[in-house]
Design a protein that fits this description.
Layout (H helix, E strand, L loop, with lengths): L4 H16 L8 E5 L6 H17 L3 E5 L6 H9 L6 E5 L1 H10 L11 E16 L8 H8 L4 E5 L5 H13 L3 E5 L3 H8 L6 E5 H9 L4 E5 L24 E9 L4 H15 L2 H9 L3 E2 L4 H22 L5
Parallel strand pairs: 1-2, 1-3, 5-6, 5-7
Antiparallel strand pairs: 3-9, 4-7, 4-8, 4-9, 4-10
Helix pairs in contact: 2-9, 4-11
Length: 318
């Protein structure tokens, strides 16, 4: 059967979009994590990867790129094609803190990345060695005013460091600051009592508390954490105290809207499943599925709030 001249000319134009548009995703996805394996950021990145694998039907590879407070991972994401196949597990450092902490982080967190969805919020925990003989915030403050104590945190300028410094300021105490590059190095000194107390993300310190190796003094969220409801919030003793870590998935600017929309829908669906909620609760994390706009609003607000705190404390990473 012959086509008319007009139909013959129109046929390629009608067929081209169908051939050119391949639904996202049609190959494996990478999620870059700016910290070593085993920490909170890594754990949440792997949960996000599992959700995307199950919801989208494509393998998700977690790639750890630690260094410079996660700046190395962030810069690597921005050098990758903005096609939806390279994403990043955003943390307080990448989303809000590093822009104030480093003279040149190599990116603008509010304009160089597109938010996909928050995943979870995690409080930090202040825990002490049992030999210190204190079990609550008031007791630790009282002891710190009698003699000089030492404290550790797991990331210079990160949420654990800010948690520690805000506590020191609001409690009106002086103490010896011992910085560490991660949870594992701090535990080498905190578990045997070489430092008196320390701050770490709740998911990575809670097992030491449950085992009795450490004593929980308080969590850094405004209220008690659903993941550890028996542990008091520091704010119960120091009203207004609050520093938490929030995590979510981001993509480089220019990523197609279809990828953002589908990834958001996948995360929201997965984070609503009882087994995922239970897993996050076990880690001491609170699921936070939501829209990209809600995630960005959190980033903007914390970028301003934590930036002011960093300036007040005079913290610099370089």
């Amino acid at each position: 059967m012959k086509l008319s001249r007009r139909a013959a000319l129109a046929a390629p134009l009608l067929a081209t979009p169908a051939l050119a548009q391949t639904p996202w995703p049609n190959r494996p996805i990478r999620i870059l994590v700016g910290f070593p394996a085993g920490g909170t950021t890594d754990l949440l990145g792997r949960i996000a990867g599992q959700i995307l694998t199950e919801e989208l039907g494509q393998p998700v590879v977690i790639e750890n790129r630690p260094g410079a407070g996660s700046n190395i991972a962030a810069q690597a994401v921005l050098r990758s094609p903005a096609d939806g196949y390279t994403l990043m597990l955003g943390s307080p450092g990448t989303n809000a803190i590093n822009a104030h902490l480093y003279s040149n982080a190599g990116y603008d967190p509010l304009t160089d990345f597109l938010p996909i969805s928050q995943i979870a919020e995690v409080p930090n925990m202040m825990a002490a060695h049992p030999s210190l003989g204190v079990r609550d915030v008031a007791g630790l403050i009282a002891l710190a005013k009698q003699r000089r104590l030492s404290y550790g945190e797991t990331s210079i300028g990160g949420s654990t460091h800010l948690s520690a410094e805000m506590f020191r300021l609001m409690a009106g105490i002086e103490a010896t600051h011992v910085p560490y590059r991660g949870s594992a190095p701090m535990m080498v000194d905190l578990l045997p009592g070489r430092i008196d107390f320390g701050f770490d993300n709740l998911p990575t310190i809670i097992n030491h508390v449950r085992s009795g190796a450490l004593v929980a003094i308080g969590v850094t969220s405004a209220r008690r954490s659903p993941g550890a409801p028996d542990i008091a919030a520091i704010a119960e003793t120091l009203p207004g105290y609050e520093v938490t870590a929030w995590f979510g998935l981001v993509a480089p600017r220019g990523t197609p809207a279809e990828a953002i929309t589908r990834a958001n829908a996948a995360l929201r669906s997965g984070l609503a499943k009882p087994e995922v909620v239970s897993r996050l609760r076990e880690l001491g994390a609170t699921p936070l599925p939501g829209t990209p706009a809600e995630y960005q609003a959190r980033n903007v607000a914390e970028h301003a709030r934590l930036g002011e705190l960093i300036r007040r404390l005079g913290i610099k990473a370089d």
